[in-house]
Description:
The complex is a heterodimer of chains A (301) and B (348). Chain A has 15 helices and no strands. With 301 residues, chain A is mainly α. Chain B is elongated, with a radius of gyration of 25 Å.
Amino acid sequence: MAVELMSGMSDSVASAAPRTRSYRRATTEGPLVRGILIALALGFLALFLVLPLIAVFIEAFRKGAGEFLFALNEPDTLAAIRLTLTVAAIAVPLNLVFGIVAAWTIAKFEFKGKAFLTTLIDLPFSVSPVISGLVYVLLFGAGSVLGPWLKSHGIEILFAVPGIVLATIFVTFPFVARELIPLMQDQGTGDEEAALSLGASGWQTFRYVTLPNVKWGLLYGVLLCNARAMGEFGAVSVVSGHIRGLTNTMPLHVEILYNEYNFVAAFAVSTLLAGLALVTLVLKSILEYRYGDEIAAAARH
Amino acid sequence: MDVSIKSVRKEFDGYPALHDVSLDIRSGELIALLGPSGSGKTTLLRLIAGLERPTVGTVFFGDEDASHRSVQERNVGFVFQHYALFRHMTVADNIGFGLKVRPGASRPPKSEIRHRASELLDLVQLSGLENRYPSQLSGGQRQRVALARALAIEPRVLLLDEPFGALDAQVRRELRRWLREIHDRTGHTTVFVTHDQEEALELADRVVVMSQGRVEQVGSADDVYDRPNSPFVYGFIGDSSALPVRVENGQLWLQDRSIGIEATSVPNGEATLYFRPHDIELLDGCGGCIAGTVAASRRVAGTRRVELEVGGARERVEIELPVEHPAGASGRIAFRPRRYRVFPAHAM
Lengths: 301, 348
């Protein structure tokens, strides 16, 4: 029996040997197809992403580093940077809180209208940023009910910092929530039940168990939220009023400088935004590399 | 701590998971809730813990009505099926968690918590693993840490949900013996849920057999195995064979033949005879017995399990024969169960 088997095997080996073929996995393609696809992808990226990025830096430094620094040191530019940081510093923490609350609500409770709420959270992604801005113009503008009333109490919303903050919050609120909801749903309520059964209060459970379980996903969401908050143009443009040194954020300032043919200054400010994007990208990659499992749960939806 | 459950009903979205369940658990007892999935055993355990509220009925801890107490106030040690260890905390922090979250006055100092965690690790035979993280432990070790964490709060009742469900057979058997030892040493009133009858029968002082949201039988391993009180328990615990029969004046009939078995308390009409495949006597002649031809035969460990066609090949029953029995392969066999029960058809 064993001998037969052996001889049978050597037969088949011998007959297979002359026409040796390189086996490849069923899901892969031939070298030519692979080469073309990779070249296409890389070429596209180079053309649409890398070249423009390099162009920004070249334009910014066209007249030398001195001119670059001088452009950044201009009072209006400094004001724009300050405003952008301020807006992000208000909008991001608020969206952090909102995101956690929304994710907690959706992931851990059962209630009517849950699916509707989930859809609603995605709304800013599907609405044009211009509309997001116009909403606040309609709400707080001169023709509205709220606007004049607030104005009579000395509160300016439109064409002032509060309006910019509101528009930014609107545009960026899905980021944290979207990141956390699938992660929390994935983790279920087992750990929370364990903590409660050990005598922990609701707050202690959240502080010691829920939050640490989602912290990397949360950080990831905050990172994306921050990048968008600083870079938002459309919605902010509608409500800002473009008052130099007062209501101009960095993206708006870039546009103004560019329209004035002040290319060096425009591109100098652009390098800051591009730099922000690069830093975000690097941090995001590090998070993905280091805590991929936890974030992957979020990407799976 | 005595625990008693009085006429508890639990519904989820109008769908009943438990119907009118009552159960008394004596202090220091080790109780198994045994049943197939969907029998409501885990729901009952969670009701005792306070993780669910009964729709109707009350849960008593001692003389105190605990129905409206929160899970924190009940002070129960709950071991979850998948352990639910806090993955970002070390083993020592996991065990100490229940002490750390106590309100100021009753919270022991840090060194005391640390000390207590070490003691408990000794108890569960994991000394020296204080600084490991749950992901660095094997399944059996995680289970032990989960138990140590539950014991740390000095619970009034210890509740375990399928404690060995996710472990392989070897570890499972080991942990079973070990859990019994821990129980005997600490004396906690312990309730555990399992779908593994071997586990329940071996480990528990009393077994609560559940089916479809009802308690079918409560008793010692001997009670539920030797004196099952319903067709379900007969079928669920241990091996059993069932044969549809007819009762006439206290005598059992298989079609037109009397099979020599009495069932005086069963009313006339259709009924089912239950017996254990191994608990039979083989007969030579057949005047009042069950006879059949061998339809299939399988070797199972130390015995041979034989399927017999009886009653004109309409029914099949399983019996066990000694391996060397000549009729094992084919032929005609006559037997009579030594111990049996007859349940009227409407009780099914």
